[in-house]
Amino acid sequence: RAKMVEIFTRECTTCDLKELVLKFIPEVIGKEIEKSCSGIYPLQNVYIRKVKILKAPKFDLTKLMEVHGDYSGEEVGTKMERPAEEAAPAAEAAEEA
Q1: Hey, CA dihedral for 87, 91, 92, 94, is it positive or negative?
Q2: Inter-residue contact 22 to 7 (CB < 8 Å)
Q3: Model pTM?
Q4: d(CA 29, CA 50)
Q5: Whole-angstrom Cα distance, residue 7 to residue 4?
Q6: Are 24 and 51 in contact (CB under 8 A)?
Q7: Model pLDDT for residues 36-89, shown as the tens digit of each residue
Q8: What does the H/E/C string look like for 23-52?
């Protein structure tokens, strides 16, 4: 376990949150733990199930906007027109509930 914790903390401290999520998706950290611990005990199916932030980073508005982009020019949440035959069953289902 100590070896797994050491690998995980090393990977987490060397990159930011955005890069860390990109490492979680293809299971890069799990494969590295599997390789390095194979001399101690043969592990199989090493997956990271849950991640918890222990110390929140400093809030930086410019970095947040860089990650999420600028949506001021687009119309977000506009109402869509639906044909009448699709709208009728949805209204009936709402009345029954």
Answers
A1: positive
A2: no
A3: 0.50
A4: 13
A5: 5
A6: yes
A7: 888 888 888 888 888 887 777 677 667 767 766 655 555 666 666 766 665 555
A8: HHCCCHHHHHHHHHCCCCCCCCCCCCCCCC
